[in-house]
Write a structure and sequence with these properties.
Blueprint (H helix, E strand, L loop, with lengths): L3 H5 L7 H22 L1 H4 L5 E3 L11 H7 L2 E4 L2 E4 L3 E3 L14 E3 L4 E3 L8 H5 L8 H27 L1 H20 L4 H29 L2 H29 L3 H15 L10 H6 L3 H14 L37 H13 L1
Antiparallel strand pairs: 1-6, 2-3, 4-5
Helix pairs in contact: 2-8, 2-9, 2-10, 6-7, 6-8, 7-8, 7-10, 8-9
Length: about 350
């Protein structure tokens, strides 16, 4: 009667099976890197000023802007106002101190030097509405907070693999819908659900890797592999944002690769440790036998125990213990691990 680590030690640590799981799980983490920070570019605010009356448009050279827009100091720099314009153009009879200004009643004109469009230019999230850009990012992370709370419970009930690919599918579907958004409010609601999917698949991938891999493979995966492939997501985001200045096309380009990850479902097994906790010993043995075949190792004499001490052929005595968050601080050892985990994350 053996636990999982003892029973699978004969597989080795870096065989073809372990390398495949390591690579596939790391690849699923790449989208987490670029989705998490994509709002930096999707919601960036380009240079802008009030849209000028049609009768004055076409006279917006540097010399003429001074007669149409007031100047204000922003971060120690004198720039043309982004939120107000003169009611009348400059004349010899009026100077800048006596002329009346008004809000941007006709909308705004945005610089296209860096972007063709962002969600800011799409829905005019500037001036009185400039809080909406950062708020959109906050909504995403609110979804991530919610997802981080519920994903653990869901994965304990339905499995790590289900949450991993369910999160990827959720993130992909809502991102595609986001491309066709017709309002900022709709974009925000979808961002919330994308945040849930993003953090859920990240946590599930992290846990699944640490539960399938053993010893040095587990350590390298959880400390280096996850971090490097997450950083690759950052790099991809920068490259895509540089090449694609339109927010809808950028979002589409970031979403399409997520579809390519979904077929990994047939190559990544469920967590054997979770299966043992559910008493599904036969499934665990099937996974280990498949791993042994891939590693070209003869598989003999396996005998697993689940979390309750029940073994294959003796599952009638199995029972389920109820746990809650107080278990995280119940003993000194678990309490120390909990505190360290909070600090690290």
């Amino acid at each position: 009667m053996q636990d999982y680590d003892e029973a699978t030690a004969f597989l080795g640590e870096w065989g073809p099976f372990q390398r495949r799981i390591f690579f596939f799980l790391c690849v699923t983490i790449i989208p987490n890197g670029y989705v998490t920070l994509s709002m930096v570019f999707l919601a960036d605010t380009p240079q802008h000023h009030c849209h000028l009356p049609d009768s004055l448009n076409g006279t917006t050279g540097e010399a003429n802007l001074s007669s149409l827009l007031p100047v204000e100091e922003v971060d120690g720099e004198m720039i043309y106002s982004r939120c107000r314009r003169y009611k009348t153009p400059v004349t010899d009879d009026l100077n800048d101190t006596t002329r009346e200004t008004e809000p941007c009643v006709d909308g705004w004109e945005y610089s296209t030097d860096r972007y063709i469009s962002t969600i800011v230019t799409q829905w005019d999230l500037v001036c009185d509405n400039n809080w909406k850009g950062p708020f959109t990012s906050s909504v995403f992370f609110l979804g991530a907070l919610f997802g981080s709370i519920i994903s653990g419970h869901v994965s304990d009930r339905y499995g790590r693999k289900v949450v991993l690919f369910g999160g990827i599918a959720m993130q992909t579907i809502f991102s595609f819908i986001q491309v066709a958004c017709t309002s900022w409010e709709m974009f925000c609601v979808l961002s919330f659900f994308i945040g849930i999917g993003d953090i859920s698949n990240y946590i599930a991938a992290f846990v699944l890797g640490t539960e399938v891999l053993i010893k040095s493979a587990r350590i390298v995966y959880s400390t280096i592999g996850v971090g490097i492939f997450y950083a690759i997501g950052y790099i991809c985001l920068s490259l895509f944002a540089y090449l694609i200045p339109d927010w809808k096309m950028l979002l589409l380009a970031l979403t399409v690769p997520e579809i390519l990850v979904l077929p990994f479902w047939w190559f990544i097994p469920e967590s054997p440790r979770w299966l043992l906790s559910q008493g599904q010993v036969e499934e665990v043995e099937a996974i280990v036998k498949a791993a042994a075949k891939q590693n070209d190792i003869k598989c003999t004499g396996m005998r697993f125990e689940n979390n309750d001490g029940a073994t294959h052929g003796n599952l009638a005595t199995r029972h389920t213990d109820m746990h809650n968050y107080l278990d995280l601080i119940r003993t000194n050892n678990i309490r120390n691990i909990t505190v360290i985990s909070f600090l690290l994350w």
